[in-house]
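If your schedule permits, I should be very grateful for your opinion on a structural question. Thank you for your consideration; the sequence and its tokens are set out here:

===
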Amino acid sequence: MKIENSTFLITGGTMGIGYATAKMLLENGAKVAITGRDQTRTETAAKELGAFPITADVANPEDIKRTYQEFLQEFGRLDCLINNAGLGVFKRIEDCTVEDFEYIYRINVFGAALMAGEAAKLFKQQNSGNIINIASTAGTKGFEGGSIYASSKFALRGMTQCWQAELRKHNVRVILINPSEVTTAFNVATREEKPEVPNKLRGEEIAHAIKSALEMDDRGFIPELTVWATNPF
């Protein structure tokens, strides 16, 4: 696809990977809306970027419907959904609760699925479209304390494969991106960005992977892309 003049909806776009991706796309002529749960943070980030702000929580189905209403009212059509919003809880299995699983799954799994479902309706009508799902290397291999978070990303990986099977006949490309550790505000209680570490991945590297995957001619797509730091040690 051509990035210039294409329309993008990025969930969790106020910081980290979402913010870096919005910035890179806008610098290449795209039209971008970002979502975030905190109105002040969302509007501030959008103003910095030159993006369209939508205050919404992907864990809330009514917010998802309103997100699409506001997006379409502003842009008229959607070319690419980037399912980036996500959270993590890390506990030993004996300490995990149903509430922990529900909290993370409402965002990482159910929210992503409902966002994609609304996008799929539009893309089938258009006979074109793109969905980028931001998963994690935790969705390819489990780790100690990762029962809740890793399983949510395994679920997103499985759903991505299902959507690929369902939507290819409608010329819709569904792409999974698996970042390894990225220095963002992820899992930081204050939601402040972590200091940049020279040998660790930044949001910019993931944004580059997303942009590169999308820029392939629409006749082809990359089903899954994993991004590692070259030497994080």
Helices lie at 16-27, 39-49, 61-75, 98-126, 147-167, 203-215. The radius of gyration is 17 Å. The mean pLDDT is 95.
